[in-house]
Design a protein that fits this description.
about 250 residues, Rossmann fold, 8 helices, about 45% helix, about 15% strand
Length: about 250
């Protein structure tokens, strides 16, 4: 099968790409950073895997059209994400809109572009990478939380619209994952809260999580693979929460 993964050069995206490639699928790494795409594709090909890459801006209609003209995937993983941490009154409006465009409108428009092909083939899997913040909130993350909450509702609607075909749409929502994006958040939160970075990890990030651990990218990749397996063919419109017990409180 062919899998297109957005934000594929980052920690979560590349882990998913590597997992699917190692299982014998063709993976297409879609990202904004051309040099990073080339490097990551080369890494996969060096292992004998079937990998390709394409520059994709999920906020740009022409870029989405160019991607889907070249690739009509069996599986789409909407993973691209960005973060900005600030009080709402200090949040640049253009930055607020950018987060919504990347993490909510982008997945919607990319799904819109690939769904006709999936429906014609009577098969498709769309996996949206959400967050614990699709279910709970944290201060100073209004745009991110709004986008991820919206992604859950979007996923459920599209799953219902395509339930007449062998197409499923699900969202994976991990608690904090130790990726470069989270590393940046640690520094930003330390500044915002006037704490050390270790205090941010202990008092903010892992404090609500009973297991007191970061989620591994391998866990997310394996969950994505399970959602694409025959055993999960009737799992749709669901939220797969990898949170160490956070939302049980």
């Amino acid at each position: 099968m062919q899998i297109v993964i957005t934000g594929a050069t980052g920690g979560i995206g590349f882990a998913i790409a590597n997992h699917f490639a190692s299982a014998g699928h063709q993976v297409v790494l879609a990202d904004l950073q051309a040099a990073m795409i080339d490097s990551k594709v080369a890494d996969l090909r060096a292992q004998g895997y079937n990998a390709a890459g394409i520059v994709l801006d999920v906020t740009d209609a022409a870029s989405i059209a160019a991607c889907t003209a070249q690739y009509q995937p069996d599986i789409l993983v909407n993973n691209a994400g960005i973060q900005h941490v600030a009080r709402l009154e200090d949040f640049p409006p253009e930055k607020w809109q950018q987060l919504i465009n990347v993490m909510l409108t982008g997945p919607a428009m990319l799904s819109r572009a690939v769904l006709p092909g999936m429906r014609s083939r009577n098969f498709g899997r769309i996996i949206n990478i959400g967050s614990i913040h699709a279910l709970v909130a944290s201060p100073f993350k209004s745009a991110y939380v709004a986008a991820k909450h919206g992604l859950l509702g979007f996923s459920k609607v599209i799953a219902l619209e395509n339930a007449d075909k062998d197409i499923t749409i699900n969202t994976i929502c991990p608690a904090y994952v130790k990726t470069p994006l989270v590393e940046q958040q640690i520094a930003a939160q330390a500044k915002e809260h006037n704490l050390t970075e270790q205090q941010v990890i202990e008092q903010i990030m892992l404090a609500p999580m009973p297991q007191k651990a970061f989620i591994g990218v391998d866990e997310i990749a394996a969950t994505a693979a399970f959602l694409c397996s025959p055993a999960a063919r009737h799992i749709t419109a669901q939220t797969m929460v990898l949170d160490g017990g956070w939302t049980a409180r």
